[in-house]
Fold:
Amino acid sequence: MTDPRHNARSHLFYQTDHPRPTLDRAEGIYLWDMSGNRYIDGSSGAMVCNIGHSNPHVLAAMKAQMDRSTFGYRLHFVTEASEALATRLVSHAWPGMDRVFFVSGGSEAVETAMKLARQYAVAVGQASRWKVISRWPSYHGCTLGALSVTGYDALTDPFLPMLVAMPKVPAPRAWLDGLDPADPATGAHYAAMLDAEIIAQGPQSVLAFILEPVGGASTGALVPPAGYMEAVRAICTRHGVLLIHDEVMSGGGRLGTMFGGQNWPAPPDIIAVSKGFGAGYVPLGAVLARGDLVDAVLAEGPFAHGFTYAGNPLACAAGLAVIEEIERQGMMANSLTIGALLKARLTALMDRFAVIGDVRGMGLLMAFELVADRVTKEPLPPALAAYDRLTEQAYARGLIVYPRRSRGGYAGDHILIAPPMITTPAQVDEIMERLTAAIAAFCVECGLEDHG
Ligand SMILES: Cc1ncc(COP(=O)(O)O)c(C=O)c1O
Structure:
């Protein structure tokens, strides 16, 4: 084990206080360290390695591309790989959403989506529009623009003077607010807050609304209540506000559809994707946008934006092979089947552990939230850092999960369980066995009830 804080041999500075082993190799849903210990990738890294590790088809596609070229600057060459990937992405998107701009990560995708929206507004004579409304809590990336629309205080607070203050509306946390997520009145309730915020800001100043179709790190797999997505779409249209779906975590098949938002009949105007599309093989991201929107921008001149490594043929060849594998192995359907099994097994844990207050999610983007009291939904004392303790108990048992604070960055604890889309029922057993042992040990450590 290498203690990241005190490893005199390392020049890297790490972001975890926990000693971590050195990675040796990875295959399928497993990773091995240099001592031969095996870990189950219960969170696909950071919800990235959606198709599993070391997929031979993707590796072969990458090697084939490497033998031809690894880089061709996008202003100097068209590449077959980037053209083919763009075509494949569009084939999965809504009709009319047929233009693609490549980037190398999620934050870059969000920045690009916001800047494309802005340049569109300028192009069509609506330069007064610049505010991007987002939700609280939310996570949209770590660069200053993406952080401006992020609602996660622990990450934004140190940088507040450097951020543009963007308006926030409450995320539709129906469970927390004691509302019925299946009741369309609940969706209407949260959507009305967006409507009110747009009006309060002055509709002519509002450029876009950005949301994660199913929430990721900040809300712990928050599924929108009935009617919410449709109502949000209608409100944005009514006020001339562009709707951006941040699909960095929810895209790529986990929710049973290539783009998570396709679970609702409410298409966005712009989509930001990354993680699952590079699937851990390459840094890759993209923005998809309505064709008429891009045409309006390009009619006035070039899109004033771009990243050096964006659209490089190696990343695009890998991305294309990833989509081919998702299609060939029927991984989106498997996500729904295995996700339902996982959700049932997680929900059953509530009978044993009173500390689990809620189990939520869709497909293979699942989470459970810890509470001090199930009725009041009071969180555990923040100083307990329950999210971190439980994660370490799992890690010690060879299970990797993804923890975060649920209540905006400083309080609340949830754990995301999001294994690769190739996970089998037997592997769900393996995950649950280790997770159950980890929660039991965590309860002993913290003096919490265990009815096991
Ligand atoms: C919804 C969402 N948007 C954007 C990002 C930022 O992506 P990246 O870390 O690749 O910059 C993330 C990362 O977790 C995310 O979950």
